[in-house]
Amino acid sequence: MNARRFLSALVLLLSSATTFADDATDRLAERRAIRVTPELAVKCDQLLEKWKARFDEERFNYLVAPPYVIAGNGPPEKLRRYRDGTILAATRCLQKQFFKTPPAEPVLILLFESEGPYKRLAKKWFADNDVPYYGYFRHDNVMVMNVGTGTGTLVHELTHALIKPDFPTVPGWFNEGLASLYEQCSIAFDDTIKGHENWRLPGLQKALKAGKLRPLAELIADRKFYRPDLVGVNYAQARYLMFYLQEKKLLQPYYAGFRDTAKDDPTGLEALKAVIAPQSLEAFEKDWRDWVTGLEFRSGR
């Protein structure tokens, strides 16, 4: 009789523990969910219907995770890992830290496991012939990604997709600087994202050592960010400015201040001066250059 009572109590205890664990999981999932409007969810379903025949023809797997429609030529479990471990995780972080206006339109994310299908379908579906090696974000809210190279560029392009509705007039130097920051990043359990040193550092240090790095004010004021003779170092300089502001805990207030005053300060130079005050821009840049010189990138990180 005592044995029966013990077994009954044990079953009840295990059932209760399972219930508590399930409740905790549900609460965690609810806390970490991305809030979207019913209208956006419907638009995502409609976008999938529009593309489904093309996906089926190429034997793509696909899923809807508003605001995203995600499709790729990898197996379903890999697609889910991209969704949960990178796309939705980074979205939660970026929206928490920066972006108060969420997308009103779906974002289509196409994930290719190798270069061949990536180039072939970029041409077939979009008539894009000369595509970047890693991937790109199109102005029609489509991300075309060669994830065979890794997921760093996936977060980079995701940042472009999320900043678009929040800061429509963001200049190229800031847009690329912030997106590049998260090419090498870590995502914490508390939904915070942090950039780290990456492959762009050696080129920046080389330009700095050679005395060929232009002042930050010149980078910020230049409307031709993508000019061929400077585009590589421009990316690196913008990225490591964002990195430095992150380390000084100034990146979030700088973004918010710049976005909210961009009508009167379209380049963001005055917003930068305001967020680093009372330090002058000249003193700030000297400290930034010294900091960059002392950084080290270890590719195995």
A few lines on this structure:
Helix content is 58%, strand content 10%.
What can you tell me about this protein's structure?
By secondary structure, the chain is of the alpha/beta class. The chain has two domains: 38-166, Collagenase ColT, N-terminal domain (Glutaredoxin), CATH 3.40.30; 193-294, no CATH class. The chain is 58% helix and 10% strand. The protein is built from twelve helices and seven strands. It has helices at 2-32, 38-57, 76-97, 115-126, 152-166, 172-181, 201-209, 216-221, 231-247, 251-261, 269-276, 281-294, and strands at residues 61-65, 68-72, 107-112, 135-138, 142-146, 185-187, 193-195. A five-stranded mixed beta sheet has the order 1-2-3-5-4, sandwiched between helices. Strands 6-7 form a two-stranded antiparallel ribbon. β2 (68-72), α3 (76-97) and β3 form a beta-alpha-beta unit. α6 crosses α9, α7 (201-209) crosses α9 (231-247) and α10 crosses α11 (269-276). The longest helix has 31 residues, at 2-32. The chain is globular. The N and C termini lie far apart (60 Å). Mean pLDDT is 90; it is low at 3-31.
Derived structural class: alpha/beta
The main sheet comes to: 5 strands, mixed
Separate helix tally: 12
CATH 4th-level superfamily of the largest domain:
Collagenase ColT, N-terminal domain
Strand content: 5-15%
CATH architecture of the largest domain: 3-Layer(aba) Sandwich
The percent of residues in helical segments reads 55-70%
Integer-rounded radius of gyration? 23 Å
CATH topology of the largest domain: Glutaredoxin
